[in-house]
Design brief:
Blueprint (H helix, E strand, L loop, with lengths): L3 E8 L3 H12 L4 E4 L14 E3 H7 L6 E12 L2 E12 L1 H14 L3 E3 L6 E5 L2 E5 L3 E9 L6 H6 L10 E10 L7 E5 L8 E7 L3 E9 L7 H10 L2 H7 L4 E10 L7 E2 L2 E3 L15 H21 L4 H11 L3 H19 L6 H10 L2 H13 L2
Helix pairs in contact: 1-3, 1-7, 5-6, 7-8, 9-10
Length: 372
């Protein structure tokens, strides 16, 4: 007999998983939130930039906020651009932990330090194998880009060289720094298809480099050290400062084809819910987690966990602004990736067009033109 029984098991206590668990538990269902790390967010190397609107919707207290960010600075080979933002920066270990606490406050049970080794779907239940067996009606995969959902069931994000970014980031000590903007550095010396970033916090700055795996021609750690110590626009700020930690991660650069199956849903990075141009995903993960939670609640109330019943999740997701944004930027990325065969600045030009709002304005004009 299994040691545990739940209505829903959520694998992964990141923003998507904790949000889904919170929604389901709030409706009175038994939810187990399983996290492989000892603490949610402990292994995250994410820079921690979030739109203020998204943060308010989480209901977290303002003490989680590291800095208010009113501006983004974008550096291109031909010059720089400054755009207004309404963002904040957070430390992901604290932010993720607080989101998980919100889920437990609603009744979810958090099981940290538990690696899920296998998931099996039977006619009347799901069996999750970790250090103990857990049975449930539904499982939500929120376990990142190397998701078990794809490895076991063929749904969720499929890592490929042209659809996966490799990133490395570090936290640099800079007590009481005066930086108040996110910096994005587009330069071939840093990344052939991606960018370097500086995201300030109260007493540290998160510095990182991301590059599409198929375009990575150098050791990415060497690229980060170049940005820290030799690249003039950033080295003059960062060189000689103490590094507190360094880590790496994969970032999805394409939406998953299917994000549901019998008795299962996939959310967040595990579903490729990341902007393929900027690499940002927290906002999309939280919105998808909320939607997945609602769909799970409806399935539990109806007692229908079939493939056809849970298809509503993907149908609803594809009607959201989040999906439209990701899909548009994925199409652009695919087109410019082809153009990069003829123009080495293809990615930088695409990023400039997206950051400047040129693409958004063109799409708005097209929609207006097509209106009757």
């Amino acid at each position: 007999m299994p040691e545990k029984r739940a209505d829903v098991v959520v694998i992964g206590a990141g923003p998507a998983g904790s949000t889904a668990a919170r929604v389901i538990a709030k409706r009175g269902f038994i939810v187990m939130l399983v996290e492989k790390e000892n603490n949610p967010g402990a292994a995250s190397v994410c820079a921690g930039g979030i739109p203020m609107k998204t943060f308010r919707e989480t209901g977290l207290s303002s003490d989680v906020i590291e800095k208010f960010i009113p501006e983004g600075a974008y550096y291109y080979p031909w010059g720089e651009q400054h755009l207004k933002l309404n963002h904040i920066s957070v430390c992901r270990n604290l932010f993720d932990r607080k989101l998980a606490e919100k889920a437990t406050e609603e009744g979810a049970e958090l099981r940290s330090g538990m690696l899920v080794e296998d998931v099996r779907v039977k006619n009347d239940r799901v069996v999750i194998s970790a250090r103990e067996k857990i049975e449930s009606e539904l499982v939500v995969f929120a376990d990142g880009p190397n998701t078990l959902a794809y490895r076991k069931f063929g749904i969720g994000f499929k890592p490929k060289a042209d659809t996966t970014y490799v990133s490395v980031a570090c936290e640099i000590e800079w007590r009481e720094n005066s930086l108040n903007c996110f910096e994005f550095h587009y330069n071939h010396a840093i990344s052939q298809w991606g960018y370097g970033w500086i995201f300030p916090k109260r007493n540290t700055v998160n510095v990182g480099v991301g590059c599409l795996y198929s375009k990575l021609s150098k050791n990415i750690i060497e690229l980060l050290h170049y940005m820290l110590n030799k690249y003039p626009p950033t080295a003059r700020k960062l060189s000689g400062r103490r590094m507190l930690w360094m880590g790496s991660a994969l970032i999805p650069a394409a939406p998953a084809e299917r994000i549901f199956g019998e008795r299962m849903l996939v959310v967040g990075d595990a579903a490729g819910m990341v902007d393929p141009v900027s690499g940002g995903g927290i906002e999309h993960a939280i919105n998808a987690g909320r939607l997945a939670g609602d769909v799970c609640v409806n399935a539990l109330e109806e007692g229908d966990f079939s493939h056809s019943s849970l298809a509503v999740y993907q149908n609803l997701w594809r009607k959201t602004e989040d999906h439209a944004h990701i899909e548009l930027n994925h199409s652009l990325s695919s087109m410019f990736l082809y153009l990069s065969k003829f123009d080495r600045n293809a990615y930088i030009k695409m990023a400039f067009a997206v950051n400047s709002g040129i693409i958004r304005n063109l799409m708005t004009m097209m929609r207006l033109f097509m209106m009757k």
